[in-house]
Amino acid sequence: MIRLSGIRKTYGKVTALDGLELDVREGEFFCLLGPSGAGKTTTLKTVAGLENPDAGTVTLDGRDMRGVEPYDRGVAMCFESYALYPHKSAYDNLASPLRSPRHRLPADRARQRIGEIAELLGISALLDRPVGRLSNGQRQRVALGRVLVRPARAFLLDEPLSHLDAKLRQQMRAELKAIGAVQRTTTLYVTHDSVEALALGDRIGVIRDGRIVQTGTREEIWYRPYDTEVARAFGRPRINLLPGTVTPDSGFRTADGKVELPILSAAAPGTDVLIGVRPRDLTLGEGPGHRLTGTVYVTEVLGRSVEVTVRLGEQHVSLVAPRGEVTALRPDDPVRLSVRPENLLLFEADRPERPGRRIDHE
Ligand SMILES: Nc1ncnc2c1ncn2[C@@H]1O[C@H](COP(=O)(O)OP(=O)(O)OP(=O)(O)O)[C@@H](O)[C@H]1O
């Protein structure tokens, strides 16, 4: 539905988009996730027609958008820096998109629509207030309302929750998901927050240095990350990545030999690799799967669970366990760990020029 192919955009010497390929399907809620400067906003502006690419094509519903003015593209965009009329009321700010010739609604329909959106965003009680006298978070919700109020072919949302506090953000996340599901409008949603992307995205596109490095469902990105950087971007505490080499008998071994695991990979013996396991996939004690032994290094309470860092020779791994299971643990206590083979990820070693790619293994 939204298709970007071979998009290149430079600003002077800076390459913002470097051959970007992106395909957002009809009705899909697609999250574009990446660090600051990766090219997320430039991607949205290119779809909206606010930036013209140096090369590549943008198509919406199969139609090439070259030369089509932003206004005629039928997409609604919400910027991080929201453009509202500060002296007008929240209501008038929401009503103004419905007054444009293209989207004009009869007065009673407009009132009804604004009422619904205000309800959804929890701003019904603020509609009479001038926007200049609202808090940042309230203003952000009005800005989002301005985008959602008129029917559009697609919504383009640029970090719409970034100014909200954690609690409100969580609540709005759930509401946004509901709005997306109800309206079934194709949504391209930009965020640098992986929790948000996992919560909202039907699919996620990971962007880095102006290119999409991986597109997939949350399961695909989680279980089959393209490289170590994608693996590190998702999940807190972060994935454990232990450096070692492939042994002649198709195993993995750290330099000091304190961690040995079977991996059944096609990688040649002697290859430098990283083995990845997420903290929640490591179990304390003798569970099913492979066994490891180490000593407790440090424990840190994370609410109802505890992060336990375990020393395995020269390496450390962290795991997350229920609080009740680990209250007796003290530094230097010996512990056994287990991990299911299917929860081990194998990567090439990181290199200065690029993060290690995932290697298939059984
Ligand atoms: N108008 C501009 N003039 C010059 N450089 C720009 C301009 N807009 C963006 N850039 C540069 O292009 C690159 C991509 O910027 P972009 O705003 O798309 O990143 P982003 O992923 O949205 O980052 P953030 O999360 O910080 O908003 C950055 O290096 C940025 O400095």
UniProtKB/TrEMBL annotation:
Q: What InterPro entries does the database record attribute to this sequence?
A: AAA+_ATPase, ABC_transporter-like_ATP-bd, ABC_transpr_MalK/UgpC-like, Mo/tungstate-bd_C_term_dom, NA-bd_OB-fold, P-loop_NTPase, Transp-assoc_OB_typ2
**Which part of the chain is the ABC transporter domain?**
2-234
- Please list the GO terms describing molecular function: ABC-type transporter activity; ATP binding; ATP hydrolysis activity
Keywords attached to this Swiss-Prot or TrEMBL record, sorted alphabetically, are: ATP-binding, Nucleotide-binding, Transport
Q: Which GO terms describe its cellular component?
A: ATP-binding cassette (ABC) transporter complex, substrate-binding subunit-containing
One Pfam assignment: TOBE_2
The record, for Gene3D superfamilies, names:
2.40.50.100, Nucleic acid-binding proteins (2.40.50.140), P-loop containing nucleotide triphosphate hydrolases (3.40.50.300)
Matching entries from SMART domains are given as:
AAA (SM00382)
PROSITE patterns, per this entry? ABC_TRANSPORTER_2
Q: What is this protein called?
A: ABC transporter
What is the organism of origin for this protein? Streptomyces caeruleatus
